[in-house]
Amino acid sequence: MELYHRTQIQDVVGLDQSALEAVEAGFRALGQGEVVQPPILSMAIEESNGEVDVKTAHIRGNDRFAIKVSPGFFNNPSLGLPSLNGLMIVFSAKTGLVEAVLFDEGYLTDIRTALAGAIAAKHLSRQDSRRATVIGAGVQAELQIAALKLVRDIDTVDVWARDTDRAEAYAVRMRERFEGLTVHVHGDLESACREADVIITTTPSKSPLLYADHLPAGVHVTAMGSDSPEKRELDASVMTRAEIFVADTRAQSETNGELKAWVDGIVPFEIVELGKVIASGQSPRIGRDQITVCDLTGTGVQDTAIAGFALKRLVAGLRQQNSPGGRDVS
């Protein structure tokens, strides 16, 4: 068994086409019925304002599967510690033996979450999308745009966040990271969304932020902040206005995602799962003015896909390092 730390993992895994293809393949397998994926195991640790989520999945035919343990302790910043942490344990799918522990401190979760947003936009947004609106100004707000640029030629970003100073700091970071990228900071959501081709929500909000009135014709919305029963980012009007609603999994969207808006479980529109869209090989968008919405709650198959991808690159790097004339990539 090998133990890999965050710095080693960051050296070999980032937001690139190969990583995107690995996560996309996981979604495709899910859509084809080739994945065993149990429900998320969640545990609250209320006295410490904490929670722990455990996710896993096995893609039939794969040599490995992963179990991810993801703690979130939200008083940690006052102690000088990060709120989110975690690790992934990679097992052999043939023997059940542990092959590696990826002590990534949540890094791979950030990467696979951003790539899932890009995959949703690849299949649901207009191919000529150039302008993206981001709601929120944290780590995912930055990573989502970086990943989106793998599939769409984004040249303009509009950002809104409750904390204007954080939004301004986000704009500075993004201009420095991407040469030629235009970034506008907005004081209200209506103006931030007015010219959007893609809207991405990246907040931990517990009440809806985005409403149907905010949506221009032809926009694609990726909602990725609602991943637990108490979170909501989309008003029900956003989903009923959309011609197409896609979820990573319907069951998770109903319990942790945006379909919680229908407490009786009776949803007044068709729901398609992202894996089935990918497996079909056809975009469901049929017109320029269609509005599409994708709700991403985070799935175990994403974790198994990115963990397997990371371990392959780590092992390849060690082989190269140990070969005659090899270089150190770890």
Would you mind describing this structure in some detail?
- The chain has 330 residues and is of the alpha/beta class.
- It is built from 10 helices and 15 strands.
- The protein has helices at 6-12, 17-31, 107-124, 139-148, 164-177, 189-193, 236-241, 250-255, 274-280, 300-322; strands at 2-5, 35-36, 41-45, 50-59, 64-73, 87-92, 98-103, 131-135, 156-160, 182-185, 198-201, 220-223, 244-247, 271-273, 292-295.
- The strands form 2 sheets. It has an 8-stranded parallel beta sheet. Strands 1, 2, 3, 4, 5, 6 and 7 form a 7-stranded mixed beta sheet that branches.
- Helix 2 (17-31) packs across helix 9 (274-280) and helix 3 crosses helix 4.
- It is globular, with a radius of gyration of 19 Å.
- The mean pLDDT is 94.
